[in-house]
What we know:
heterodimer; A: alpha/beta; eleven-stranded mixed sheet; about 25% strand; globular; B: alpha+beta; eight-stranded mixed sheet; 8 helices; about 30% helix
Amino acid sequence: MIEGAWTIDACGSETVYGSGWDVTWEALLRAREIPLAQYGGLGLMAVQDVVKISHIDRGLEIDKQPVGMAGRIALSVLGQLDVSTSELLYIASNHGESDLIVTLAKALAKRNGADNARIRELLQLNTQDALATALRAFKNCGASVQSACSSGLVALVLGAMRGRRESCGVTVVASDALSDIECIGFSVARATSNKRCHPFVQNSDGLTIGEGAAGVNISWHKAESLPNENPVILGFGLSCDAFHPTSPEEGGKMLERAWRSAIRMSGLEPQDIDAVVLHGTGTPANDSVEAKVYWRIWSDSKPPVCSIKSFVGHTMGASGLLNLLVARSFLETGLLPPTLKEQLGSIPVLPIGIGKPISVPTPSACLVVGSGFGGQNVAIVVGNSH
Amino acid sequence: MNSILFFSIYNALSGFRQPLTSNDRQWLSRDTGLKRPRRCMPITGAALRAAQMAVQRDSTVEAERLGIISTSGNLHTEHCIEFLDRALQGSPNLVNPLDFSHTLVSALPTTLAEVIEARAFAFSIGEDELAVFEILDSASDLLELGFADCVIAIFASSNDVVTRIAHETGLIASSPADCAIAFRVTATPHEGSLCVQLLPDDTVPDIEVNVRDLTLLVQGISAVEPIGWYGPALGGVLIHDAVANRGAKLTDISIHASRGSRSLRLNPDEIPT
């Protein structure tokens, strides 16, 4: 018997499909692909569509407000959530504002004729990243969290724990945008695919970089007073590979520890898990480790899995929270989105859906997974409150 | 609910400027075991040394029960600038892929975790002067829920270009400074540990403090001269400075945040003998 759980009271998102989670969920169930944009020679997800959605000016000039794409879509998601019941805001990002910081630093170094008062104004808006602007605008305090591509889920874990301790509602928003640093970095690391990524099939050859934001409102309830509504966050697990700056530990020992820790905290056994929403980047390094851990844990029950990155791209710091929203909708509908639109001759290495959703009648629990550079692993179990 | 934590403080060290000299690299590799020092953000070596001192005192903690939380902020700015300059002005092929990870501020805690073998968790939190609350809040929760037995909290700041300009234009009065301080934080007392109590809001502060003015929050040691700009590391620096350098009594120390009415007090009643 667990002590209690966190209800997911509201959610919001910005993806290549548009604003609001319902839009993205419908598109994922239909395996609707948005054409890739070619940007700087890299295979990227629909840059122009995101720009169209959010009306972002990606350029930064010293006489403009230095809030980039990641900051703006984070604020958009914040606007989709009813934050009147939240007292804490946790925000998370990865590379989204790195270019912004560099550009700002260079612009400031040159001064560009700006007077000291204007420079001070710019600096106050930008310390670590422009998302801090959202944090400071919020009525109460929270925290800004960075843990590479697991940032969103780590922020959720930290916000959940503190919300429980202080008996208050928590809003968590994660956001990331395309940046030169990110595109160049993944490219030189030979981690990007020139075509749409294909997670969990043989011969998958790299990721598709995307951008997006996601957010949730959560609140803690003791078991005896848990509202009869679904789904809820039952437990979570954390671990660090402590192995390599960019590569996961090949055996997946610490990854498995995080997954099992989340299941244990939830008062469940592995066979109680009805589906797994994996990190599934499409890189051989990530996907092979996740597949190894999956087969060690579920060689008998074989719950279906999915990755949404073939459709929305790898949204980096926001990817984990988007996975959480997938799990929430899966538990509400019994439908797990397909991982690929079509098979294209490659053989799946995990039980993924292709072209159509996988139906699971009356699901009761789903594991959500996120990982990041440096071997930062997070797992969260979402389940029915009863 | 008030959280009680116990911690020890380990040295503040200066960072290194990039590019590192060969002596720097030799020292970092030989004395700290830091791999690929040339690929790391400048503060990494100093932070690692402080973390190692904190860990050495407690070799009984298993790697899987040891976690790292570090401050965030502009630690990676210089590294990002160098990375982009080399890629855009030269060629992307001139960039070493291993430089990429340190364009993320969270590469600091994960690099430390790799060397000292901390496998419970490693992440960055807190981008402004109130990071001390955010780090200790998180450490408290993670210890209480059993995710670790010991947390190494890293308070780091870097004399990066943005902060230097902020100083030059008068936004911050003090000179930017590099530092790395490690707290070894546990939920139970350990030898020589200090006790800290994280208080919720509604606590009337002994001294109203505006952290942006860099006021040292030590009752009885008024008008302490500015000790430099430490950004997110400020809380750690203040506690370190008060205890180690200024002879402050623990009963005198309290830190109050101007945002969200947070308080942090060293509580003499809880100090283990």
